[in-house]
Amino acid sequence: MTDAPADAGPVIDVHGLNKHFGDKHVVKDLDMQVQRGEIYGFLGPNGSGKTTSIRMMCGLLTPDSGTGTCLGFDIRKQSAEIKRHVGYMTQKFSYWDDLTIRENLDFIARMYEMKDRKQKVDQALESLGLASRAKQLTGSLSGGWKQRLALAACMLHEPRLLLLDEPTAGVDPTARRDFWEELHRLAAQGISVLVSTHYMDEAERCHKLAYIAYGSLLAQGTAQEIIDSQQLTTWSLRGDNLVQLGSDLRQQPGVDQTVAFGNALHISGKDADALERTLKQVAAERHLQLEPAETSLEDVFIYMMKQSTDNFAEAGA
Ligand SMILES: Nc1ncnc2c1ncn2[C@@H]1O[C@H](COP(=O)(O)OP(=O)(O)OP(=O)(O)O)[C@@H](O)[C@H]1O
């Protein structure tokens, strides 16, 4: 096994990655860097190229063009070495229902030809809180426990990088919170995590984020940097019949987007002056309560998704 320099440079460093499936350009000129101990969130609408990007970055799929390294190994030429140091959790739970948790982990340990198998499995059961359920059949576990088993399985060979593809889809909020506590514990030990998600609360727990739509990376940075990058101003308007109000407002000058949040409507726009004039007038006419609001990550993601949908449609793609 070839060892890559452990602490030298970014854990993922890719430039100009492209991938086509047939005539579909699924990933376009992707540049990305992930640092050691960083939790990096990957967001974007369904089918935007997240899984394809993750697979290229860990050497499972060869890009049509572009270059890069993962853990210091060349993504084109050294995929076997990358796989030895990466834990990959796919979207689909792929363990045996009729084996117990321990048997599933033992099977994975055999696949990796680990010498101290029993000790490694015991450690994994202990550190992910699975010890009390070690003898339970996997098929009878709830979604949260299955996902904990999947994490234990992809941590078994002590990878330095975790690639997690929507690891918490369909899992309840408490189990998701526990899962994220675990990710932060691993990151604090220097393990890097690239995780795709559709959940806003999870996005906010990442150190850095990338937003990808129709194969193009539209923004990357900390949550605050992504919010700032779109230069939106947002106001909150309270009142009755928010659906009708939203639809009326979307025709008005300065209003780029309206999103209902509980009993309030978030209204955002790029032209701050025009937006303020419109909203003050509407609030006065209809006796509504108007307040400036912080632009949230969710406001910004909805805005970017809408922009990219429009651009995609205009391009006739
Ligand atoms: N092996 C393949 N052959 C042909 N097309 C593919 C293949 N894999 C993915 N695609 C297509 O590439 C596009 C991007 O898919 P990908 O799975 O990377 O998106 P995603 O962002 O991970 O989506 P989701 O959020 O739904 O998981 C989709 O249009 C998908 O249908």
Polypeptide structure, described:
The chain is of the alpha/beta class. It has 11 helices and 14 strands. It has helices at residues 50-57, 79-85, 101-111, 117-127, 143-155, 173-188, 200-204, 223-229, 242-249, 272-286, 297-314; strands at 12-21, 24-34, 39-43, 65-70, 73-74, 86-89, 161-165, 192-196, 208-213, 216-221, 233-238, 257-261, 264-269, 289-293. Bound molecules: adenosine-5'-triphosphate.
In short:
This protein has 317 residues and is an alpha/beta fold. It has eleven helices and 14 strands.
Blueprint (SSEs and pairs):
Blueprint (H helix, E strand, L loop, with lengths): L11 E10 L2 E11 L4 E5 L6 H8 L7 E6 L2 E2 L4 H7 E4 L11 H11 L5 H11 L15 H13 L5 E5 L7 H16 L3 E5 L3 H5 L3 E6 L2 E6 L1 H7 L3 E6 L3 H8 L7 E5 L2 E6 L2 H15 L2 E5 L3 H18 L3
Parallel strand pairs: 3-8, 3-9, 6-7, 7-8
Antiparallel strand pairs: 1-2, 1-4, 4-5, 9-10, 11-13, 11-14, 12-13
The structure holds adenosine-5'-triphosphate.
